Amino acid sequence: MDREIRPLPAGWEKKRVEREWGKTEEDTPRNQRSPQQRDRDRILYSSAFQRLSQVTQVTAPEAGYSFHNRLGHSLKVAQVGRRHTERLRQRVADDEITGAAAELVMGTDPDAVEAACLAHDLGHPPFGHIAESKLHELAEDSLPDGYEGNAQSFRIVTRLAVRNENQGLDLTRETLDYLLKYPWKHWSTDPLSPGKREKKWGYYQDDRKAFDFVRKLGPPESKDALPEKSLGAEIMDWADDLTYAVHDVDDFFRAGLVPLDRLRAPDDAEIKTLTARLNELKEEDPAKFPGYEVNVLVERVREILSLHGPGERYAHTASSRAALREFGSKLITRYLGAFTIANDPQSGKARLHISEDAERDVMALKMLVVVYVIRRPSLAVVQKGQQKVIEELFDTYYKASAPGRKGNRNLFPPGVRERLKDTEEEAGPRTRAVLDMLSGLTETAAIELHHRLCGWGSGHALDATALMG
User: Fold this and answer.
1) What is the C-alpha separation between 63 and 65, in angstroms, rounded?
2) Quick one: how far is CA 393 from the chain centroid?
3) Which residues make up the CATH 1.10.3210.10 domain(s) of the chain?
4) From the centroid of its chain, how far is CA 230?
5) What is the spatial distance between Cα 196 and Cα 187, in angstroms, rounded to a whole number?
6) How far apart are CA 424 and CA 419, in angstroms?
7) Is the pLDDT reported for residue 28 higher than 80?
8) Percent of the chain surpassing pLDDT 90
9) CA 354 – CA 364 distance, rounded (Å)
10) Radius of gyration, CA atoms only, the chain
């Protein structure tokens, strides 16, 4: 994969320390930290970040197994993203990257990359992607741009998170730019194939002011082309992809669900099982299947494991743990090395290149988790219940958000009630307020709140709103 990267806009160095809503660094006391370091610390100490410890990555810890949650994942994405930025800078120092590419690398701050990586999953609702899809479906009638986890992350750091009397965390333009994995609005019908802007977007229309602040030094959005991402956003995106793929496989091999040890030989029965499951998935929903042939994905799995993979079932011994740690480390190192920056011979502009083998490998590892874990009937039953919790909470709170006797705004915590005062009968703002509240719940809080609203189990009048705080 090759594509151009958003160049450093003219005036970037002068504007870098500007804060959200136009404030500048001179408005705050000076200390030993850079503005980007302060961004990192503000995200790390935010309640939105702490909440991720109770938001699952794929499935919750069970039966003695500790799987990655969104907090652990975000910390590892941040570590990989920062080290990758430092690696690219070292290549500049060694004259392996020169010209426009070197200028771009040296203009990308490692602290800002780390901050963006820490913040990239803040918008994940309880129960992850299954709830994200359900919330978008429920909101579409009254909000054209519905609900999207990446747009919600941007909304949290620019508007919802509380640090002082101002909205959001007051982050630098640079960090916010690196957070924009999808630097465009939602398009109900995207004229560009394959319709990427219909499925993913980086901000809501409500938050256009913040988005314009971040991107105003670059070209405006166009219907004819996807906006270029910054190098920091590309680093964050790749760190997210490869850590997600490698660490989930690690989790579920330990739990005995993904049989890495039985997928090494091309004539093994498990290879045939994997092939059959991938074919079944492709037949069920071709549009959602990755753009690779099944036999290509299977071959990539076999090659990855033949080079680095464990040769026996995980035994919970010191040697098993060491071998699995080495496996994950080798894969991360391999895929970071596949991400390179070079100068286009014709235009002289910096271009990003990620090897096709690495992209296929990462997708193949992700598909192992899909076919062996996500499609398990036991998880499907759990997810069906989670969808019901989200749907019934949304229905209850949307009806309660109506003004006067039509609703019951006492069900909301004080902060949400304040926002609802200005909405009256408007469906869109009421829907957005409900989405913000529900997406900010932990999974435990969502389930307990649902139980109390349904009259299941005991509850106390004094702690009901604490679930939503």
Assistant:
1) 6
2) 23
3) 2-232
4) 17
5) 9
6) 10
7) no
8) 58
9) 16
10) 23
- The residue with tokens 């997210």 is 240
339-343 and 2-4 beta bridge pairing: unpaired
Pairwise CA distance, residues 228 & 9, whole Å: 12
**Cis amide prior to 194 (ω within 30 degrees):** yes
Helices 70-93 and 318-337, interaxial angle, to 10°?
50
Sheet with strand 2-4: strands edge to edge: 2-4, 350-354, 339-343
Q: What is the DSSP string of 274-316?
A: HHHHHHHHHHH-GGGS-SS-HHHHHHHHHHHHHHH--SS---S
- Over the stretch 383-433, which tens digit does the pLDDT of each residue have? 899 999 999 999 999 999 998 888 899 999 998 988 888 777 788 999 999
Give the CA-trace dihedral at 212, 216, 222, 227, to 10 degrees: -100
Tell me the fold of 2-232: Hypothetical protein af1432 (1.10.3210)
Q: Is 61 helix (H, G, I), strand (E, B) or coil?
A: coil
Closest CA to 375 of 444, 279, 301: 279
Phi, psi of 294, deg, nearest 5: -60, -45
pLDDT tops 70 at residue 64:
no
pLDDT band of residue 439 (cuts 50, 70, 90) is very high
Output the DSSP codes for 238-251: HHHHHHHHHHHHHH
- Paired tokens of 284: 């069920």
Two structure tokens written together for 291: 């753009």
* Residue 92 pLDDT level (bands cut at 50, 70, 90): very high
Give first-to-last CA distance, the chain, whole Å: 43
- 226-285 pLDDT tens trace: 888 999 999 999 999 999 999 888 888 988 889 999 998 766 899 999 999 999 999 998
The pLDDT of residue 66 is 64
Query: Smallest Cα–Cα separation from 101: which of 345, 337, 304?
Result: 345
Structure tokens given for 415: 């902060």
* 332, 242 Cβ separation under 8 angstroms: yes
The answer to whether the CB of 236 falls within 8 A of the CB of 78 is no
d(Cα 341, Cα 108) in Å, to the nearest integer?
13
Transcribe 143-196 into DSSP letters. Answer: -TT---HHHHHHHIIIIISBSSSSBS---BHHHHHHH-SS-S---SS-SSTT-H
